[in-house]
Every structure is written in C-alpha cells, then in structure tokens.
Amino acid sequence: AKKSGKSKYMHYDPSMSNALENDHLLISHIKNAYENKEFTLHYQPQINAHTDEIIGFEALIRWYSKDFGYIPPDRVIPLAESTGLIIPIGLCIIEQSIQFALEMKKKFSSNFKVSINISVVQLLESNFEDELFERLERYHLDPRYIQLEITESVLIETSGTMIVKLNSIRDKGISISLDDFGTGFSSLTYLQKLPINEIKIDKSFIDEMLTDSKPAKLVDTILYLAKELNLNVIAEGVETKEQQDYLLDHGCSIMQGYYNSKPLPIEEVILFCEKRIH
Ligand code: C2E
Ligand code: CA
Ligand code: CA
Ligand code: CA
What we know:
By secondary structure, the protein is an alpha/beta fold.
C-alpha cells in the first residue's frame, strides 16, 4: 500500500511520500480524514478471568488512510492534540462509543462499560462535561455504561478545576480509570486527589513481571494499593496465559490484552461476545 501511494503522488508532490514523517502534511490529512469521517473505533474486550465474564471494552481509534494505509494512534493523537483537532475528533469518538454501548446493550443486555480514552486537551475545554452529558441524554444512554480513561497528565492543571470537573463527571455516574498507571511521575497524592474508580496497570510492568523481580514486586504493590484504596484494577497488555495466571494468583482478575482478544471492529466484537456467552 505504501508503494502504490508513493508512486501515485510522486507526480505532483514528492514530499507526499514522506507524509508519515511530515507533521504538517499529516495534519492536513488528519483534518480531511475527520471531515470525511474516516476515523473509526475498534473495541478491545476486558475480561474477568476469574468468572470468565466480559466486563467492558476499550475504544481505540483507527485510521486507514486511502493514501498511506494504517496510521497508528500514537502518531495521530499527538498531532490532533497539538492542533486542537482532538476536540471535534474526540466528540466523534464519544458519539461512536455511545452508539456502540447502545448496540451491545440491546444485543447482550448485561453489565459492561465502554472505556473511552480522553486527552487532557479535551478535559481542559471548559464545556467538555456539558458536551459529554448532552450526548448521553441525546442518545438516552445510562452514564454507568461509560468510563473515561485519563492519564495523570490531567494534573498539569493544578488549580483544582480539573478535580472539580472530574468530580462532576463521576457524580453523573460515569466511571474514571487512571491509565498507564505507574509510568509517569505519579505521586501517591494523585490517587488521593483524583476521583477515580479504577487503575490500569501499564503494559510495561506486565511485560517484565515474569522475568524480573522488580516489576513483579511493583505489580504486587499496585495490587495491594488498589485493594487498600478500594479501587478496581485492570492489567493491560496481557499477552500470554502465563501472565494471566500470574495475575490471577496475585489477586488481579480483570485483564485486557492480546491473550484474550485484540481490539476488534464492531462486527467481530459481537461474534466474540456471542461465542463467549453461548
Ligand atoms: P493506551 O490507551 O495505553 O491503549 C493500549 C494500547 O495497547 C492500544 O494501542 C492497544 O491496541 C494496545 N494493546 C492492547 N493489548 C495489547 C497487547 O496484548 N499487546 C500489545 N503489544 N499491545 C496491546 P493503540 O490502539 O495503538 O493505541 C495507542 C495509544 O493511542 C493508546 O494507548 C492511547 O494513548 C492512544 N489512543 C488510542 N485511541 C485513542 C482515542 O480514541 N483517544 C485518545 N485520546 N487517545 C487514543
Ligand atoms: Ca487507554
Ligand atoms: Ca493504557
Ligand atoms: Ca500503556
């Protein structure tokens, strides 16, 4: 795909072949992709490996560019953040996630949450929560079906308005998960200050916990903390049975990762759920 894209555009703009590396070029394509509704979501199941239940799904943005093929979110999101495009794109992600929740609710009528990644740039918008609540009302979705994944970067806002905002979101019945836990500068104060329901143990710890005693001890410590603070805990990036068994043995039952399922398009999530349930 990369090859054909290259030759196709060589005619009028040689720099196009470098679009993946060229921020300015990619930004203009992101803008077009938004206008042409090219962004979709895949959903990765979150499993209670203890009871074998599906307890939720993380929504992850996907962009298959006609010109460049698949562009990973790690490339798209930072550019969308730096240009402000994350605001309209983020609202579109929220709407798609709400529609997905409605469809899953209709099909499976069980308890689950759809976890939506929210950038700090979105949270800094003064009307973020109003836009969110407005959509939940418009689509008649009970807020308990939604969870927001935030990172500790939300605390760059020290004035306390962020905490007020997160509190009002949680008061609505929306859950909040602290993503990539353990990777930042997270002081334990954050756990105390932020109104969170869940912490998500970063994949880097899961990757190394079976081969190195330090990450293994950190995982144990995080699990202990979560228990003491009455927080849910989920492990991300669980790729093997050995990792899952280890986590189960150490008191963590909620898993997300390739071992259970990759992020899937909606039709495949439905098949995945049908297979697990029946
Ligand atoms: P994240 O929030 O930490 O998401 C987890 C990433 O790990 C996803 O990458 C997921 O596909 C991948 N993953 C899940 N299980 C496994 C596993 O077992 N092994 C491996 N190797 N990887 C696994 P993805 O989809 O490429 O997203 C990367 C990052 O981009 C996300 O990291 C998140 O920070 C950001 N992102 C993705 N979608 C959105 C979105 O809708 N909004 C915002 N603001 N950020 C998003
Ligand atoms: Ca996430
Ligand atoms: Ca994460
Ligand atoms: Ca991560």
